[in-house]
Amino acid sequence: MKQSSVKWFGYLFSFVFLIISCAGTETELTQNQVNEAYKGKPVSDILVIAITGNEDSRRSFERKFVAQLKSAGVEAISSEEAIPMPADLEMKKETILNAVKQFENDAVIITHLIDKEEKEAFTRGGRAHGGYYGSYHSRYTYSYARDPGYSSTSITVRLETNLYDVKTEKLIWSGQSKTLSKDSKDQIINDVIKVVINDLQNNKLITPK
Q: How confident is the model at residue 183 (pLDDT cuts 50, 70, 90)?
């Protein structure tokens, strides 16, 4: 009996640990739109552009997007590699057209931030014991920093990603993602890109070579 109880507790602990380990980041595609004229006609070579006022963030996002597209069997190049970036980070239409012609891209994918919200929560540690005085004493102790508790910050990020056909300049696919996370910026980026690529694959807009 004791052995089975220990085994049951072990399974429970493993299950709880799995839930906790997966709870850091939650990304979902809240909206998506597919141009039916292009559905089932996969693109094979994509120019990746991230619109942001921060150069490091742009490079990081584009590099990770390119890497994941290549892992999915799709050729891709970042705007960082393809286009000399002006000081104000605003690319002109002519420079983009020249880049897709030079690198023979058949599609351009553009991602930009819609909204970002940060919330901080503070949690006090410990529990109250021993009736009303025990409750008073324990709360007094926590309030005066003997047990200061901990704070955590959650970030909600909303991004929009659009895929365009190079020849017609028409929209092929559009999606909005929402990420609730306590993880690093890198993890948020990776999760968003994964969700986008999965939906493009589901709609047969990109396929492995």
A: low
- How confident is the prediction for the chain on average, in pLDDT? 78
% of the chain beyond a pLDDT of 70:
69
CATH fit for domain 25-120+156-202, picks 3.60.21, 1.10.8, 2.60.220, 3.40.50? 3.40.50
What pLDDT sits at residue 203? 92
Provide the edge-to-edge strand list for the sheet that holds 107-123. 25-34, 171-181, 150-165, 107-123, 45-51, 75-78
Quote the percentage of the chain above a pLDDT of 90: 47
Q: What are the CA-CA distances from residue 86 to residues 50, 89, 163 (Å)?
A: 14, 5, 23
pTM for the complete prediction? 0.72
Query: To which residue do tokens 């986008």 refer?
Result: 196
Going from N- to C-terminal start, the domains of the chain cover: 25-120+156-202
Please give the backbone phi and psi of residue 72, each rounded to the nearest 5 degrees, phi first.
-85, 0
Residue 152: what pLDDT?
Answer: 60
